[in-house]
Amino acid sequence: MTSAGVSSQVPVDEGQKWRGVAADGRDDLTAETTAKLAGRSRRLLRDLLTPYRRVVKLLIAAVLVENAARLSIPLLVAKGIDVGIHVGNLW
């Protein structure tokens, strides 16, 4: 119990254990315990995302392509300024 009279441990219903680790955000845990909980959380995330592996890979590819396209804009503008566009060579 804390000084406010509230228990520092959050009760987890038996049917809700799949939802994650209730103690992840606590400050009173040792580094070893925190590392174990983080590993457990990563395994849970992996288990939950496994059925959607193909979709996750496609989304990651889409994000990478989108970022590459956004990052290429300044390069294309610099090239246009340095080299220039000659009359009649627009398309």
Task: Explain this structure.
This protein has 91 residues and is mainly alpha-helical. The chain has one domain. Helix content is 55%, strand content 0%. It is elongated.
Summarize the structure.
The chain is mainly alpha-helical and 91 residues long.
- What overall geometry do the principal axes of the alpha carbons give? elongated
According to DSSP, the number of beta strands is 0
Which structural class should the secondary elements be placed in?
Answer: mainly alpha
Instruction: Tell me the major beta sheet.
Output: none
Number of helices: 2
- Could you list the spans in which at least 5 consecutive residues all have pLDDT below 50? none
The string of secondary-structure elements, in order, is HH
Helix content: 40-55%
Q: What share of residues are in beta strands? A: under 5%
**Span between termini:** 74 Å
* Average pLDDT, all residues: 78
How many domains? 1
Q: How large, in whole angstroms, is the Cα Rg?
A: 25 Å
Label this structure with key terms.
91 residues; 55% helix; 0% strand; elongated
Q: Secondary-structure blueprint of this entry?
A:
Layout: H1 31-49, H2 53-83
